[in-house]
Amino acid sequence: MDADQQWKKQCLNKLDHSKKSSVDEDIEHVVILLNSCEEYFTTSSCSGRIILIDGVSGSSDVHKQNCVWLFVSHQKCKSEDLISGLARSSADAVLKFEPFVLHVQCRQLEDAQLVHSVAINSGFRNSGLTVSKTGKILTAVRSTHGLEVPLSSKGKLLVDHDYIHFITNIANKKMEENLRRIQRSVLEAEEEGGEKQKEEKNKTTVYKRRRKREQHCQTDCCHGDGSSSAPDLEDCLDLFT
Amino acid sequence: MDADQQWKKQCLNKLDHSKKSSVDEDIEHVVILLNSCEEYFTTSSCSGRIILIDGVSGSSDVHKQNCVWLFVSHQKCKSEDLISGLARSSADAVLKFEPFVLHVQCRQLEDAQLVHSVAINSGFRNSGLTVSKTGKILTAVRSTHGLEVPLSSKGKLLVDHDYIHFITNIANKKMEENLRRIQRSVLEAEEEGGEKQKEEKNKTTVYKRRRKREQHCQTDCCHGDGSSSAPDLEDCLDLFT
């Protein structure tokens, strides 16, 4: 077993620390696709959800774990669900739509760039990389698509039922758009995969030359300038095995 | 003029493409601090704002440029401001609180890691790096702190004035917390600066050795493995001049 396979095996053993211990239905194919690649594994994910939480909205640092979850849905919902959830509010209830989020650990920087590029092209504009102190490279796929509506204060409803009906429609429309973007990201990834295969056919010589240079440098070179540590995406495709 | 200075000069010529052509008052010191460093320059920024925009909330891809801006404030606001803005709504008005956002172009990956680390430690949890196709490295500083409340539909108000008063308070509290986080990021950056100076004193020999290795590798080495292209943050500090 080579070092990369070892890396992947170690990582897979650590998978799924979530309470739920399963992947949301709407993104199962995305998670399976990524985890089938040597370069990637997913560390956490949520397909998108409509939540109603009860907490103290004025506090400077609201942690969800200190709140009561009145309602959660990973699908579209009905205004009746929210109304019955709100009936149990004793503090400040807030309705939120939280879009798809995915954290992908990546073997190399260029692998992370590829996921990031697919995410941006699919409409997940708040995506970004994280390079940790220990050199761990993560791509976080995030959307700008949100909704955060205070609905009660000290358990007292602040709006009428028509408004709750209106806001349910908005949250459901955001859920639909969210699923469209997830589907777009799968198509984008498949397109990148096709491009990659073409590149591999055309660049066998370049690829071999690069591998030689890499072997030469791996023990000797730690820091290049910006352009060498962050090569063009096109440059990376032929290294993407 | 060496290559790095040339890089910085070229970049500075391109600064501030915003309509406003000036930096928001509350973050002027952050932008000045970053631009005084050789390794960084800021490409866009917003200190945080409360906005009221009028558009079509049901459309799948809402672009702010297609909306009417009924009200904008980079400071705390009064419910009267929002009420008079809403009086001019003819479509679907939405109140948003948008927190501090900052894009910093960085010379090297390790410089970007440092900004990212300061941002995360200050509470800007949605921050992330972008490495473009051309090798340009950006750190985006982003917060999870938001608010997005639909208030009118086809020009008709959906809530009462008490609710608008309530929501104004929430938006203002978010603005206060936002400014606290910005201040925390300046303190974090100063702390990192102090650590950096200590590291520089202790690691002169290591630093010189690294520079030698870099010079040796710059023309020869393009791609290391994950650990070499993404060194520990501690490793980077002595390269942070």
Automatic annotation (TrEMBL), chains A, B:
Residues 194-203 have a biased composition (Basic and acidic residues). Coiled coil: none annotated. Keywords: Methyltransferase, S-adenosyl-L-methionine, Transferase, tRNA processing. It holds the Pfam family TYW3. GO terms for molecular function: methyltransferase activity. It catalyses: 4-demethyl-7-[(3S)-3-amino-3-carboxypropyl]wyosine(37) in tRNA(Phe) + S-adenosyl-L-methionine = 7-[(3S)-3-amino-3-carboxypropyl]wyosine(37) in tRNA(Phe) + S-adenosyl-L-homocysteine + H(+). SUPFAM superfamilies: SSo0622-like (SSF111278). One of its GO terms (biological process) is tRNA processing. Its EC number is 2.1.1.282. InterPro entries: tRNA_yW-synthesising, tRNA_yW-synthesising-like_sf. Residues 188-231 are annotated as: Disordered. It comes from the Eukaryota. Pathway: tRNA modification; wybutosine-tRNA(Phe) biosynthesis. Residues 6-184 form the tRNA wybutosine-synthesizing protein domain. Probable S-adenosyl-L-methionine-dependent methyltransferase that acts as a component of the wybutosine biosynthesis pathway. Wybutosine is a hyper modified guanosine with a tricyclic base found at the 3'-position adjacent to the anticodon of eukaryotic phenylalanine tRNA. Belongs to the TYW3 family. This is tRNA wybutosine-synthesizing protein 3 homolog. It comes from Labrus bergylta (ballan wrasse).
